[in-house]
Here is the input.
Amino acid sequence: MSAVAFSRPRGRGRLGRRFRGAGPFTYLFLVVVAVLSAFPLYWSFVVASHDNSAVSAYPPVLTPGHELFHNIRRLFNSGEVNVNFWTALVNSALVASVVTVAVVFFSALAGFAFAKLRFRGRGVLFVAVIATLTVPVQLGIIPLYIEMVHFGWTNRLYAVIAPNLVSAYGVFLMRQYIVQAVPNELIDASRVDGCHTARVFWHVVLPAVRPVAAVLGLLTFMNTWNDFFWPLVVLSPRNPTVQVAVSTLASGYVQDYALVLTGTFISIVPLLVVFLLLGRQIIGGIMKGAVKG
Amino acid sequence: MTETTVARGTPAARRRGLRSRLLRTDAKVSPYLYIAPFFAVFGVFGLFPLGYTAWVSVTDRELLSPVVHYIGLQNFTELLHDSYFWNSVENTLAIGVISTVPQLLLALGLAHVLNTKLRARTFFRMSILLPQVTSLVAVALIFAQLFSHDYGLINYGLGQAHIGAVNWEAGRISSWIALSVMVTWRWTGYNTLIYLAAMQAIPDELYEASAIDGARGFRQFRHVTVPMLRPTIIFTVIISTIGSLQLFTEPYLFQPLKQGATGGSARQYQTIVMYLYEKAFGSTQFKFGYASAIAWCLVLLIVVISLVNFLLVRRIRSAES
Here is the structure.
């Protein structure tokens, strides 16, 4: 951790003046930031691993206890809590998976057309896709709700899946990537061989977009899993997503923080696991999007 | 020569002709097929509802009442005289300012610090992004506990420092501060990464040139890094502004037991989207026409404030250089 390790002579080149060596205070500062970032999550785990009386202990308990599994058992025991947590988890997994697959597939498909196929109106239509990014879609929430009532989709998962099946951001991302990642010669060659564009898409484009598909998929899965406002509006606590279930849990009559934060913690765990495994890619995705966007 | 004339008649050649015609149709039609899903879904669930909001906002529509009357701009005039609405605008703007400004400054500083030769780079980057993975619901519920009056850890800390407990949720300013802490906690890391990416794209020559001019450390940061980040700063300011104007989940769950869209007993932290929710979906309201009018005012506010921010950020920067 010492800064002495960076006593490389100041000189020209990439690591020259621009990249200052990091001193001990830099590390101290970063460690404090890291602790502040992680602490609330750690805290939810601490509360979730005690029984409820620990919440009011003085001084507060700051280390994990042994009640986590007991709390989890209570959480999934529908006789004890006001919401069916299993249903919620399964619903969220289902919704997020379907939305992720659809967004990646449709984005790649449209991105391929915009990047590599020539057709009338291509420029205008692509601008139209970008323009939809500036429209705050959430604000059409009331007519969207009325629409769902007419479809008979309130309280059903279709209502949270259907509006999210495509993403303008995804189309944009895919188009930018395909333009440079798939060589025109490859497309032309398969054309000369008499290959249908659908086959080109399936055999050439889809394998080539794998890296960006992973990033888009991860971000889409996270956003869908975490979405709250629209599911709260259109679903009921009887058939909730996990976010609606957790908020319902928190509104329960008895103030049981241990139980509430157990639910909260369980709702974060899947994303936490994904993040720990693929955090590097997520960071790369956000940073790449920033440079291009 | 004879071979070709013979070949034209064979079934194989006819198939080849058919095939090339199919391929030509494919080249013409399929691009539209490939982009159709996007436009179809967006049209049905994005564009149509948005246009429909315009219609609903000039009616007296309540939930699914069969009879709907055109009432002109009545919803809007009523809204302009609605003190609850202006209260929500004030709360939203205040929370927006005290969450966006510190958050972006912090992110800028953090990115600057991270843009050094660091050990455990990935570890630090991942740790600052950790809050971004946490759902808004989880953020709200965890912080509601941390900020709770009697058993909250933050009040315990304040007590130890002999400052005394604060009833965060009950006060106006205190609730704004608590909410802005939640927003800042969740979004600082994301903005840091955006800034960091932009910093790494700044060409080395600029730093070398400014070093020759004798600029180092903070002066280099101010005169090279910040001006070069201008487009990125504009981007983050606008994105954060839009986000903060639509704040809902954190204040909605601030009081987990009595969660509701009124934003505290005195509406001390009710935001615009909460007021919209209260009017449209709150227990006995279902005033869809009125709520749609709120939606349109929110859109207007977003456009105006984004524009103002854009001009402001652009001017400050160019005045400096």
